[in-house]
Amino acid sequence: MTSSQEATECKGSKKKQRNATKTKIQLDVQGVPEMSPCVRSRDCEEGLCCALYLTGRRCQRVPALGEVCLLRGRAKFRRRLDRCDCEKNLYCRAQPDSPRGQGVCHPDPRN
After folding, report:
1. Which residue intervals make up region (Disordered) (predicted)?
2. Sign for the pseudo-dihedral over CA of 92, 97, 99, 100
3. Is residue 109 part of a domain?
4. Strand pairing class (56-61; 48-53)
5. Whether residue 83 sits in one domain with residue 51
6. Distances (CA, A) of 69 to 12, 16, 72
7. What are phi and psi of 99, to 5 degrees?
8. Which residue of 8, 44, 48, 94 has the smallest Cβ count within 10 Å?
9. Of residues 49 and 55, more confidently modeled
């Protein structure tokens, strides 16, 4: 094949070529490790979520039973630092000695 034939050979639209590349990359990715940049939680490895961290979003550990968590409310949305919600079937409950806006993951009594 000559160079003029290669130049005229149709490989589909540029948009389809870009999408094919994106799809291939997404299928190859298993998830990024802790503190790596992310867009959404499914970008992160198992046991991590995507949360706001200073200048961008980073994969962070999901708090387990007895670990520190952030209480829901206005304070959580004003921060430049965020934490993941507690693991499934756990909820964040304030402790008498906890700093304001923080709590500890406890078993959810509704489950």
Report:
1. 1-22
2. positive
3. yes
4. antiparallel
5. no
6. 49, 43, 9
7. -60, 155
8. 8
9. 49
